[in-house]
Specification:
heterodimer; A: 110 residues; mainly beta; 0% helix; B: seven-stranded mixed β-sheet; four-stranded antiparallel β-sheet; 48% strand
Amino acid sequence: SQQGEEDPQALSIQEGENATMNCSYKTSINNLQWYRQNSGRGLVHLILIRSNEREKHSGRLRVTLDTSKKSSSLLITASRAADTASYFCARETSGSRLTFGEGTQLTVNP
Amino acid sequence: EAEVAQSPRYKITEKSQAVAFWCDPISGHATLYWYRQILGQGPELLVQFQDESVVDDSQLPKDRFSAERLKGVDSTLKIQPAELGDSAMYLCASSLSRTQETQYFGPGTRLLVL
């Protein structure tokens, strides 16, 4: 079973707009990672934020982590049609085990 | 750029038949993972190898699933007998070590059990 939730389940925006996805979890973590999955393909690692970090940037991606609220958010700025994909947060607990959320399906309309 | 290879990409089988999936991780990656992803959900870990040893198979249905990584390189996941509920995407991933957090995923094998 999977622990935690992601919201929204689906998000549809116009090109150029920002997209924000949220992830909540229940147990303590070593780090939290975000992955992208294009339809019918494998997952691609986007960004990792450690439990002692609060914010991290990578290109158009910004990730925040609030360990007191057990939540994280992924912001994609100036979205493009090529950003259309499913986005998953994954919590790493002991032994490098990753627990994935249900994912957010992002659609960026041209 | 090095990639995780998986085969076959698609597999259709009838229930009660045996199926096998193959994974070749990125060269030098000691840790290998098998995940199952049901449509519309996130991946769920089935088994984790460190070199040739299983370090986590707590979510592997051992009555019908088996996995091996005999030489600590490529790996095979087997289902026997397959059931209708096994229809899913089976993903393989690898990482340099258990302490290297980023996992690199293969393209997956989509299994349909009829």
